[in-house]
Sequence to fold (446 residues):
Amino acid sequence: MAKYAFFLGCIAPLRYPGIEKSTREVCKALDIELVDLDDASCCPAPGVIRAFNKKTWLAAAARNLALAEQKGLPIMTICNGCYGTLFDAAHELNGNPEALKEVNEVLKEIGMEYKGTTEVRHFAEVLYNEIGVEKIKEKVTKPLEYQVATFYGCHFLKPSAIKNLDDPENPHILDDLVEATGAKSMPRQQKMLCCGAGGGLKAAFGDVAMKFTQTNLENMQASGAKYIIDVCPFCHLQFDGSQKDLGFNMPVLHLSQLYGLAMGMSEQDLGLSAHITPVVL
Amino acid sequence: MVSPNPEFFNELTAAGAGDVKLCFQCGTCTAGCPSGRRTSYRTRKLMRMAQLGLREEILNSEELWECSTCYTCVERCPRQVPIVDIVISLRNLAVAEGHMYPNHKNTAKNFSKYGHTVPVKDDITALRESLGLPGIPPTVLASDKAKADLDKILTVTGFDKITSE
Fold:
């Protein structure tokens, strides 16, 4: 049985708890054991905290990695931002004695040490690579005949040189995962365009971020998609929170929520009341 | 007149951005940049400014903060220049000199205060409970000891200088 330390991050538990709930239920259904990564903090966010102070970013990330190391478990994230930070930090530290020594100088202050052994995984990639589309299909009890727009976001697959999950310009794994539920992923223009929220753009230049989002929404609508399926609570927040102002009305679901539905979870358990764009299923 | 500063290259190297020297100005980055299509940010120009050592122009610029870190440029760069890492390093230098947008400072303050980038909200706590989840997630929010540890890391690494007024 696959077993992971469940890294919650910020936006899922504190804005869209339905994503956390669905992930727990879906993993249970797929025989993936999740152990809470107690005491973890923000990853910290790669586009803001890392941009402010890399030393803080790396040390706080190393603390999170060390918490999982103490449990002897790989980390599983449900957010591209957390995945970006923790994967990058592990890449920088694991197998690099000099970098480890430096970060451990900081961790020593709190009586911790990171040995450099934690592996970092993303929920969607774990499902694709460890469980597989065929086994997922067996668990679908309620096929969903939705036309959807898949949204990979940026930090799930990129930088591909270190992540090696899929073609970063023309990927298919999320489409395959979504279609395992019976849904149809609609092809569209500029599918890999950023949602606009990352890199601190949403906070400092919200109007610019909205322009990215608008182009995405226009392309999604033109494709005939009725729902947006994401793998990142921050992209989720950007699409869910912006549509009212931009004049769109496409419900936004995290992959875990789509899977929850397909595997028989009640609508109530998906936490849809936290969504700003109403979700009509 | 702008004045090039050759010393800046040493500063960049120390900050982890020395690979900017690899850029040969082909412009593939700017051509594919979704922010450049919507703002005055020009990735190639920023890389050239860094090579030339136009320190003050870069650290004072709004464009430095218009990159969404989407990595399109990094994926396509024929010289494998780690452009996003360079942007991050330049931002670190800018922040160290006090260049920071108020909303970014708020995000930093949230991280200091909660250990998370967003605050706890009562309606979400109630929703969590209705879903059978603990009202407060089992993170640093639920442990004074864990929060004290994180606080210590923030102090030791100088993050408190960012969040102070």
Notes: Chain B has a mean pLDDT of 95. The radius of gyration of chain B is 20 Å. Chain B has two domains: 7-96, 102-163.
